[in-house]
Amino acid sequence: MASADVTAVPATRTVEPEQYTGPRAKRRNNSLTWGIVGWVVGIVFFFPVLWMVLTSFKTEAEAYTNTPHIVFSPTLSQYKAVFSSGLWPYVANSAFATIVSTILVLLLATPCAFALSLRPVKKTRDVMFFFISTKMLPVVAAIIPIYIAARDLHLLDNIFTLVILYTAMNLPIAVWMMRSFFLEVPGELLEAAEMDGAPLRRTVVEVILPIVAPGLAATALICSIFSWNEFFFAVNLTATQAATVPVFLVGFISSEGLYFAQLCAAATVATLPVVLAGWIAQRQLVRGLSFGAIK
Amino acid sequence: MAEVTYDSATCIYPGAERPAVNALNLPIEDGEFVVMVGPSGCGKTTALRMLAGLEEIDDGSIRIDGKDMVGVPSRDRDIAMVFQNYALYPSKTVGENMGFALKMQGVDSGERARRVREAAKLLDLEEFLDRKPRNLSGGQRQRVAMGRAIVREPKVFCMDEPLSNLDAQLRVSTRTQIAELQRRLHVTTVYVTHDQVEAMTMGDRVAVMRLGQLQQFASPTDLYDHPANEFVASFIGSPSMNRFDGTLESDGVRVGQVLLRPSNRLLQGASGHDKLVVGIRPEHVSVSVSGDLTVKVALVEDLGSDSYIYGSLADEPDSSVIIRSGRDHPRPGEVIKVAVDTSHLHLFDAGSGERVGD
Amino acid sequence: MTAIAPPVAGTHRVRARSDERRRGWVRRAPLLPALVFTIIITQLPFVVTLYYSLESWSLVRPGSRHFVGFANYAQVFQDSQFRTTALNTVIMTVGTVFIAMVLGVLLALLLDRKFLGRGVVRTLLITPFLIMPVAAALLWKTTLFDPTFGIVNFIFRPFGIGKFDWIGSFPLGSVMIEMIWQWTPFMMLLVLAGLQSQPKDTLEAASCDGARPFAIFRELTLPHLRRYIELGVVLGAIYVVNDFDAVYMMTQGGPGISSANLPFYIYQRAFLGFQVGQAAAMGVVVVVATIIIATFALRLIFTSFSGTEQAA
Predict the structure, then answer these.
(1) Predicted pLDDT at C82
(2) Does residue C20 lie in a domain region?
(3) Residue B193: which of B20, B37, B34 has the closest Cα?
(4) Total of domains in chain C
(5) Which of A286, C32, C58, C131 is a Cys-bridge partner for C136, taking CB atoms 3.0 to 4.6 Å apart?
């Protein structure tokens, strides 16, 4: 009768990682090399941004040196100059255009994407095709009539012009992204809600929206990034009242000449909101850029 | 074809409280079909993956054909693995899937095609050779996974619950196919399942595991007739063995009000263990007017040829009793008398769960 | 059991059809606002551009507007500068997308491995994509590529470079480097999505089947990544082709038009040269070319994407 000799009490051991020299330890050493490579690559890639921020804290004399200084005594004078050069109206315009257009985009895109995700019909593909094709049309081709129309309608230098254009610019992306998020909602949820007697609108609001909320956030983030950073429409269709931060940045250079440190301060201020938003909502950014494929 | 030996093999995940596999000893013979079975979390899959090289061997060793596999990567072990979800290569056709390992070995395409065709014929896959996995049914994919393993003529087959994703009927027919295939090819096979019916019907020997530890390694019959501890006794056999608390007395074993009288040999072997768990299988108790136990019937499962009576001891309403019976069986709510075949009594020490008496 | 009266055949069918139609409209209604909005804002201007392209019109001479038929188009095709900038656009787009994708794949492979601080490194690597394009272009032009004070020359000083004018000597290349820097994170994230969506057990199976790590990459990972790479290439190309900010900020298209791309060139014609008709004609040509190329590209994304939906 073959029976194994079973020890009476199972031995509980917690083994410290340092005690092992076996294959698991070897694998940990490998991850050290990859870690070094990863950090080096990360820092090299990030370096221009780092340099920009560093330079923004220098005086012009320190910025204009043949040998770049890494150690220096930081000063806030550049930022003071930037903030005292009338930055805030531009920020207000950018914020307004970004927020309002993003809200509009979500309001338009969400029902549209929901309808497109329900039951795939040939028309679905055609509509999706149409939306993405609008992004392929070069903006330059449309700028002339838009400029002339805006001029004739007295909508030049008007922040709402930008709002409308940004909405149209981001709508295709938003529809595409939101559709992919809606597709992830299991069909059974709709059926279960129907069986529970909920009317369609109620189902959508109370059942589905909470599930796609991260997707909404991701879409909002991507649209905000593109709106905030947009330059072409802003520079051609605005002058003084409705100019946005990118326009300010360019204007700042022309009026001040090419002062590195001040430039870097202005650039840092201009890019900071989007970079911070992207860092904080990194998971959403990743989801958005990969259309919901990575969680 | 090779011997496989687990020699105190241990696998601990960093930071875990107990080893996933704790000092496992399994001497497996060449050509043997060994099944590892146990509830989820028992370490059976980890033990299999240690053999395949997909988990670390932190202590002890595993030898294939006498060669120690510690530190040897999967690709050099000459084992073929069938995964639970089949793990077919999605971008390759069925033929390319099956020929992949041969391609990695450098076998030329003509020879590859020949061996793939042979295996395909064996598994009835010839018409699917040019299809991609996404165009196959579950059963077909399972066969491709098997085919991929067979083509290689490896030293060992590792199979990780290959039937669990099939529907019930397909599961039964595939089970017999796998067993036949293994008998024909005579390749050492280590097979993991949570289904004890698969274990009992397919294995030459079965290793029952629990919480990382081996409970018993024996033939199905031995496991059934002589379970080494209470866990094995309750795990093997369906419906499971009846177990009652009992005490050892000079002339028998007392269960509640009743004194059961097994053989003297059994009683002597159990001496020193006063508190016992008494086990008896459903087919070894029967409805009988002259029986010792009084049972109140809760429900009856009528399976056509047999029926199983589920109830509890009259004086212990929390206990559970299962009795095998025939077509003529009592109704729920009835109180019946049950006789115990004491020659098939199993005794386990109440504290350790170990088998005592024989 | 009560008997149920059979329905009258005619009315039942009619009721069903109008019910269907109403349900169809309910299903389509949510689509309409977005669709109508997009059509008005994007298609109308294009139609108007078509109309303008048939006129000779200079904004500085308001009275000079008149119909000239296809004369503008003839001029466009004879314009050697148009050809040059078109070529620049192609070089810029193909080069940027290709190199950004290769780098993206390498970085994604790096980020797929576990190491300490992997999350932080990912944050660092994503950042270039977030930087405002005009700011990024400025950054590269001044603090990096500047002949005297730029970091790039400082780094290469031991190699005897001295005060090399990168932007002056390699205008197209410099712009491309800046664009590659900005777009690599995007490619990286897409490819990373692909890598992480690969089922781990197929990789283990390949390992058991005797495949070394590079063979696994070549035989399994790369085919799996194909649809992600295709998506990245198509989306990246759409954006890079239309990129205006980088050229405007870094080189203003110069020296001459050596680094001008089509968007910048057309902008010059329209807003600096005020030649509406000609700019419009160029715009139409670019649109038509884009549509032709895009039709092929779109077929590609759709097969990729419907495949992804099936596999999910």
Answers:
(1) 87
(2) no
(3) B37
(4) 1
(5) C131
Of the candidates C201, C215, C219, which has its C-beta nearest B87's C-beta? Answer: C201
- Structure tokens, B105: 């070995």
Verify whether the Cβ–Cβ distance C151 to A225 is below 8 Å: no
- Say whether residue C309 is in contact with chain B using an 8 A CB cutoff: no
The whole-chain average pLDDT of chain A stands at 80
To the nearest whole Å, the CA of A116 is away from the closest chain C CA by 8
Across A6-20, B80-94, C178-192, least confident range: A6-20
> Which tokens belong to B281?
């299988």
d(CA A32, CA B253) in angstroms, rounded, equals: 63
* Higher per-residue pLDDT: C256 or B158: B158
Assign A192 a pLDDT band (cuts: 50, 70, 90).
confident
Residue B273 to residues A143, B247, B270, B352: CA-CA distances in angstroms? 95, 8, 6, 10
Nearest residue to B223 via CA among B234, B213, B232: B232
Residues of C244-256 as b/e, b for ≥16 C-beta within 10 angstroms? bbbbbbbbebeee
Model pTM? 0.83
3-state secondary structure of C67: strand
* Prediction ipTM score: 0.84
Total beta-carbon pairs less than 8 A apart between chain A and chain C: 274
> Counting Cβ atoms within 10 Å, is residue B289 exposed (0-12), middle (13-18) or buried (19+)?
exposed
The first and second tokens of residue A164, run together, are 């409308």
Q: Are C236 and C245 in contact (CB under 8 A)?
A: no
Residues in Cβ contact with C90 at an 8 Å cutoff, skipping those fewer than 6 apart: none
- pLDDT confidence of residue A256: 59
Q: For chain A, give every residue range classified as CATH 1.10.3720.10.
A: 81-289
Rounded Cα–Cα distance for residues A123 and A113 (Å): 13
Chain B residues whose beta carbon lies within 8 Å of the beta carbon of residue A14: 15-17
Name every chain A residue with its beta carbon within 8 A of the beta carbon of C292.
none
CATH of the domain at C192: 1.10.3720.10
Classify A81-289 by CATH class: mainly alpha
The answer to whether residue C265 sits within a structural domain is: yes
Residue C154 tokens read as 């400082």
pLDDT band for position A263 (cuts 50, 70, 90): confident
Residue C219: pLDDT above 80?
A: yes
- For an interface test with B, which of A24, A26, A30, A31 has the most B Cβ atoms less than 10 Å from its Cβ? A24
Separation between Cα atoms, residue C218 and residue B238, nearest integer Å: 49
Instruction: Please identify among residues 21-60 of chain A the ones whose CB lies closer than 8 Å to any CB of chain B.
Output: 22-24
Q: Distance from C283 to chain A by nearest Cα, in Å?
A: 4
Phi/psi for B61 (5° steps) reads: -150, 165
* Contact call for residues B7 and B60 (beta carbons, < 8 A): yes
Radius of gyration of chain B (CA): 24
Q: What pairing do the DSSP bridges indicate for beta strands B156-160 and B4-11?
A: unpaired
CA–CA separation, A19 vs A29, rounded Å? Answer: 14
CB contact under 8 A, A1 and B19: no
Domains of chain B plus CATH, in order, are: 4-232 (3.40.50.300), 240-356 (2.40.50.140)
